[in-house]
Specification:
By secondary structure, this protein is an alpha+beta fold. It is built from 8 helices and 19 strands. It has 3 domains: 170 residues, Sandwich (Immunoglobulin-like); 130 residues, no CATH class; 34 residues, no CATH class. The two termini are 46 Å apart.
């Protein structure tokens, strides 16, 4: 079974020491068997039939029974060789979706190439070697020599983060189903999975209060005239300038400037977390920030090692990428009281309430508040 790299890898380090280190790291993968054999029920009964036929042939010394025994053994040998040829020379390329969230089904694109020049591959099943990857097995009836088969399949990843190795496996019972051979293939491709989205975080009373304050702050903004431009079908008809329309002979619209400032601030204190409460907080932040973005509300995200303003400095997906890779820092210092902005809707996630500045004690969600509702 060959391995296929869908993305170019960085150049390996030079030198004897680096080569020895790469060899040591690759040793466990090299000695692990890539093809596993499992005898099926049909294969077990066929083996018992061969044994009984052989016993009968030696006890009776009948040439006809010896001929039948030879045919049965030849069938077993041919079946094994054809099964091995079916799994040989296969390459797989996996193209993940652009944006992928944990525990969410998404459609990924697979390309399977048969590099053999003379023998096709029959009755293949592509499955995941672990809990991440394909949701269900995919059956491919035939791949001709040199042919590439492309298809989309549902994929799902259990946790957020960066997946550098996605294990898949081919299996086949061709031609007679006496045995099922399973061959592993490893894709050295990087897949970034965003945190899990949970709807119950959107109806939390504290988040609802912050959202109401943000909506109130947006009232009255954007009153400064920016430019006059032709009307588009998606524009609000209330902003049509009828004088300019009469002057140009076509509808024109008055466009107003919108102040580029954040409406909501979401903070994450990285210190003092246990693993599962931290994952719950990350999921809550991802869900709420994405909801704010879809409402057209600007936000600022802060942690001890990150400060993003959306959409001025970055996009919402830049924040989701940070949340996908964020890790708790036991030695992180709490936010200083002087860093709290005045009169801005703000929500802080902290492991314990005593890590929050005094001004944010009523706007702090701890581990218990971030946990999923039961």
């Amino acid at each position: 079974m060959r391995r296929f790299w869908p993305q170019p890898l960085s150049a390996p380090a030079a030198g004897p020491a680096a080569a020895l280190l790469r060899w040591v790291r690759a040793l466990p993968e090299a000695i692990r068997p890539r093809i596993a054999l499992r005898i099926t029920r049909a294969g077990l009964w066929f083996t018992i039939t061969i044994l009984l036929t052989g016993i009968g042939a030696f006890l009776s010394a009948n040439n006809l029974i010896f001929l039948i025994l030879s045919a049965l053994l030849a069938t077993l040998v041919v079946s094994g060789n054809l099964n091995r040829l079916t799994l040989a020379g296969l390459e797989v390329e996996f193209e993940p979706p652009e944006h992928l969230f944990a525990k969410e089904d998404a459609s990924g694109r697979f390309l399977i190439r048969n590099t053999k020049s003379w023998f096709p591959s029959f009755a293949l099943r592509l499955t995941s070697a672990n809990e991440n990857g394909l949701r269900t097995a995919v059956f491919i009836p035939l791949i001709a020599p040199g042919e590439i088969v492309a298809f989309h399949a549902d994929v799902c990843f259990a946790r957020r983060g960066r997946y550098r190795e996605n294990g898949f496996a081919f299996s086949s019972r061709f031609p007679f189903g006496f045995a099922e051979r399973r061959a592993r293939v490893t894709l050295l491709a990087e897949v970034l999975v965003y945190p899990e989205l949970r709807d119950h975080h959107l109806i939390h009373p504290l988040f609802a209060d912050v959202l109401a304050e943000a909506e109130a702050r947006r009232q009255g903004r954007g009153a400064e005239f920016h430019q006059l431009r032709p009307y588009r079908y998606e524009d609000d008809a209330r902003h049509i300038d009828w004088r300019a329309t009469a002057r140009h002979g076509e509808m024109h619209l008055r466009e107003y400037a919108i102040e580029q400032q954040e409406d909501v601030e979401l903070w994450l204190d990285l210190g003092g977390w246990q693993r599962q409460p931290f994952e719950d907080a990350i999921s809550a932040l991802a869900t709420q920030s994405l909801d704010l973005h879809r409402r057209g509300i600007g936000l600022r995200f802060r942690s001890q090692d990150c400060d993003l303003t959306i959409p001025v400095q970055n996009t919402i997906y830049g924040l989701l990428q940070y949340l996908a890779l964020a890790e708790p820092e036991p030695l992180a210092r709490p936010f200083p009281p002087a860093s709290v902005p005045p009169a801005v809707p703000l929500l802080l996630y902290a492991a314990t309430r005593d890590r929050a500045p005094a001004a944010l004690s009523s706007r702090t969600l701890t581990a218990a508040a971030a946990a999923p509702a039961t």
